[in-house]
Design brief:
The complex is a heterodimer of chains A (254) and B (406).
Chain A: E1 15-26, E2 29-40, E3 44-48, H1 55-62, E4 70-75, E5 78-79, H2 85-95, E6 96-99, H3 111-117, H4 126-139, H5 155-167, E7 173-177, H6 185-200, E8 204-209, H7 212-217, E9 220-225, E10 228-232
Chain B: H1 2-6, E1 9-10, E2 13-14, H2 21-33, H3 36-74, E3 78-83, H4 98-104, E4 108-116, E5 121-122, E6 136-140, H5 144-148, E7 152-155, E8 167-170, H6 172-178, E9 186-189, E10 192-200, H7 207-210, E11 212-216, H8 217-224, E12 232-237, H9 242-253, E13 261-264, H10 266-275, H11 279-309, H12 311-319, H13 324-360, H14 369-396
Parallel strand pairs in B: 6-11, 8-10
Antiparallel strand pairs in B: 1-2, 3-12, 3-13, 4-6, 4-12, 5-9, 7-10, 8-11, 9-10
Helix pairs in contact in B: 2-13, 3-10, 3-11, 3-13, 3-14, 11-13, 11-14, 13-14
Classes of the chains: A alpha/beta (254), B alpha+beta (406).
The structure holds adenosine-5'-diphosphate (ADP) and magnesium ion (MG).
Residues 26, 29, 31, 49, 51-57 of chain A line the site of adenosine-5'-diphosphate.
Chain lengths: 254, 406
């Protein structure tokens, strides 16, 4: 560890996500107890495990929304613990896209503007934001719904708008925490199809799920149990194409 | 700047993109758009406070403007001379030739006199003498109306003929109290009938004339036993020489005892009234300030609730790359917009109230420009103070708030 904290290692290391001996404790609760995870560019990875196993905590750390108690977290070559809050914000704006279980769309705001506003903090000028937003909505198959407000869209469509918002700025890494958790199986299938297409076009995707079927669909599976990695297909395996989208993918019953 | 606006990695360094003013405004408006009712209610307090203060300042400025305009019309070059007190505390008298002496002062353009006659005026001889109605019977020189720049509303002023006859001209208030509305009627003065030949209009600079019944100097001496000593001399000079004339008047009028002469400028009273802000104005301003304070607390309260309700939105924005500073700025902007909205509505309301009130009273509607500046400043300060704490709270929320289920 004799590297400068902010020095990117992109040239040397091909990893988009690099966790080494990461722990995270909340008061007395040890949510993560020493996690190692390497994700290469272009992988589609499922992080699966029972409820309370530490999946969301892991996603917070990978998404730089939280800092590890100990250990190394390096995202897109940037050493997270060494970065200031401002630098982390810039990192998220540029390198990361998030999809949440709840869609978090602004009510009463058209899909196009919901997506365009997601680019507010990326430094893209307003007109370009709307162009990119329209393109992203096209990519998730909602090119015909630009002016629709969230309440005029189905759950699956809303989540696809949220996915469009996450990928409108072409972030190298997309993080999705139970993206189908609030959807019925048909809508869940829509969203998975979108993720498959994004993966096919080169986006690195991490999907958190406790749905075994969705996990099995992903080319690489990482199993989490009691704050530890219990199984991992290994870095690079996630580059393979996924199988057919599971038509019966159950919305997780939380 | 290009490095900052691309918001990416610049030579390995991460620099957040800077939001342009329109984007900052956009984030501030976002929170207001979805809750219009709450926006209106919380801006209302500030609107009421600002409206009160604008209206109070506007109404007092309008009344002041009206006084100043009246003063302009009436002129400030009128001086009055009256007897003061002797060294022994007795009522002094002006010499009989005082008026002639005053007229000799170079810059004096016109001078006239009145002299109190020791009698009463009544509608008929059957009314007891004690019931005077507060009306003074005075002798007046024929130039008085011209000197005071007054006019008659009925009949005519005293002339060379009527000033020797038992004829009387009534001041506006005197006529009103006697119930006289037309000329030709007779009134009982001293021990005989006098005929009303004229009624005067209002005399803002000489209210004592409004309450007088005026007869000519010769008639007063002939019929009412008047001693010929003037009790008030009215004099107008050029505006520039008012002070000089004022200085020489006592010695001119009474060379032997100049200290027994009192000189005053009736317009000074009006000017003083124009200058003085009434205690009432101060009280109303205080009330406006309290309303403003309450409005500010209302905005702060709304903002605190807004931050609590929007934890997820804040987390989402942080996940999209918003810095703490940008979140803080968003809520500060929202608070400023709220109070600016209130301030704007209040200014319009206050302006309308001032205009309506002033026009109803026949005044020129005036709101001092600094009151508008003050309203803008007050709204700005309140918006900032009210938004500061909620904005800091919003900025301190952990970015993970968006992902948590609750
Ligand atoms: N903010 C927090 N404060 C305290 N404990 C937490 C917090 N977040 C997560 N935990 C705890 O950490 C453990 C892992 O949680 P989480 O990462 O949410 O699991 P998962 O997403 O796999 O269901 C759980 O025991 C949870 O109670
Ligand atoms: Mg979870």
């Amino acid at each position: 560890m004799n590297r400068l904290p902010n020095e990117p290692v992109r040239a040397g290391g091909p990893y988009v996500v690099e966790l080494r001996e990461v722990t995270r404790t909340y008061g007395g609760v040890r949510a993560l107890r020493g996690v190692d995870l390497l994700v290469e560019q272009g992988e589609l990875v499922a992080v699966a495990g029972p409820s309370g196993s530490g999946k969301s905590t892991m996603l917070h750390l990978i998404g730089t929304l939280d800092r590890p108690t100990t250990g190394t977290v390096r995202i897109a070559g940037h050493d997270v613990p060494g970065l200031s809050d401002r630098e982390l914000s810039a990192l998220r704006a540029r390198h990361l896209g998030f999809v949440f279980q709840q869609f978090h769309l602004a009510p009463g705001v058209a899909a196009l503007d919901n997506v365009a506003d997601g680019l507010l903090y990326t430094g893209v000028p307003p007109r370009a934001r709307r162009e990119k937003a329209a393109a992203a909505l096209e990519r998730v198959g909602l090119g015909h719904r630009l002016g629709h407000r969230p309440h005029q869209l189905s759950g699956g469509e809303q989540q696809r708008v949220a996915v469009a918002r996450a990928v409108a700025g072409d972030p190298p890494l997309l993080l999705a925490d139970e993206p189908t958790g609030n959807l019925d199986s048909e809508a869940g299938t829509e969203v998975l199809a979108v993720l498959r297409d994004l993966h096919a076009s080169g986006t690195t995707i991490l999907v958190i799920t406790h749905d075994a079927e969705i996990a099995a669909w992903c080319p690489r599976q990482v199993r989490v149990r009691d704050g530890r990695i219990a199984g991992d297909d290994g870095p690079g395996t996630g580059r393979r194409a996924p199988g057919a989208v599971p038509a019966t993918a159950k919305g997780a019953s939380r | 700047m290009t490095g900052e606006t691309t918001g990416g990695t610049t030579g390995g360094r991460l620099v957040p993109a800077r939001l342009g003013p329109s984007d900052v405004l956009r984030t501030g408006v976002a929170g207001l758009r979805t809750r219009p009712a709450r926006v209106i209610l919380s801006a209302l307090g500030i609107a009421i406070g600002i409206a009160t203060m604008i209206a109070v300042l506007g109404v007092s400025a309008s009344s002041r403007e009206e006084l100043l305009r009246r003063l302009d019309r009436l002129g400030t070059n009128l001086l009055t001379v009256s007897p003061g007190h002797t060294l022994f505390g007795e009522q002094a008298k002006l010499p009989e030739e005082a008026l002639r002496m005053v007229r000799r002062i170079g810059p004096v353009r016109t001078a006239s006199a009145t002299g109190v006659v020791g009698t009463t005026i009544r509608r008929t001889d059957r009314i007891p003498e004690a019931v005077t109605g507060g009306i003074a019977v005075q002798a007046a020189t024929s130039g008085l109306l011209a000197t005071l720049e007054g006019r008659v509303t009925a009949g005519a002023w005293l002339n060379a003929a009527t000033e020797t006859r038992p004829a009387v001209v009534l001041g506006a208030k005197a006529a009103e109290r006697l119930g006289v509305t037309r000329t030709g009627v007779r009134v009982w003065m001293g021990e005989r009938w006098f005929t009303v030949v004229g009624i005067l209009g209002p005399m803002p600079l000489a209210p004592e004339i409004e309450r007088s019944a005026l007869v000519g100097f010769p008639a007063a001496a002939d019929y009412l036993g008047f001693d010929g000593h003037p009790t008030t001399i009215y004099e107008r000079s050029t505006e520039e020489s008012v002070e000089a004339v004022r200085a020489v008047l006592p010695r001119t009028v009474n060379p032997e005892n100049p200290e027994e002469v009192t000189v005053s400028r009736p317009s000074d009273a009006l000017a003083a009234r124009a200058a003085a802000a009434s205690a009432f104005t101060g009280l109303l301003l205080g009330l406006g300030a309290v309303a403003l304070l309450v409005g500010g607390v209302g905005v702060a309260n709304t903002m605190v609730i807004s931050v609590l309700e929007r934890r997820r939105e804040i987390g989402l924005r942080r996940s999209l790359g918003a810095t703490r500073g940008q979140v803080r700025l968003q809520f500060l902007t929202e608070s400023l917009l709220l109070s600016a909205l209130g301030g704007l509505a209040g200014t319009v309301l206050g302006g309308l109230a001032t205009t309506a009130y002033a026009l109803a009273r026949g005044w020129p509607p005036v709101v001092p420009p600094w009151a508008f500046a003050g309203a803008a400043g007050a709204a700005l300060v309140i918006g900032t103070i009210a938004g500061l704490y909620p904005a800091m709270r919003a900025a301190r929320l952990p970015p993970t708030a968006a992902l948590s289920a609750t």
